[in-house]
Design goal:
The protein is α+β, with helices and mostly antiparallel strands. Helix content is 46%, strand content 19%. The strands form two sheets. A two-stranded antiparallel ribbon has the order 1-2. The longest helix is centred in the last third of the chain and has 30 residues.
Amino acid sequence: ILRLQPKTFKLKSEVEELENPVTYAGFIAEDVDEIDSLKVFVGYAKTPDGDLIPDSLYYAEMVSALVSAIKHQDTIIKALETRIEALEN
């Protein structure tokens, strides 16, 4: 999760069709695909050659992984706060 780099982007179809296309925030499917433990959140498309390439992300499913990461960090923060408090007393 910590390796993810949020990006902003515009959809090609909207850039071609709209005067003011929407700017979205998210992740690049190819970047997420490079992280083995996160491949489960990547949707793949078939090329004409039959190869699978990263094409989309299952954002709704990513929420649980993000919440788990936050909870893990919260546990670490609380433990460190307890240690600091004990050292200061």
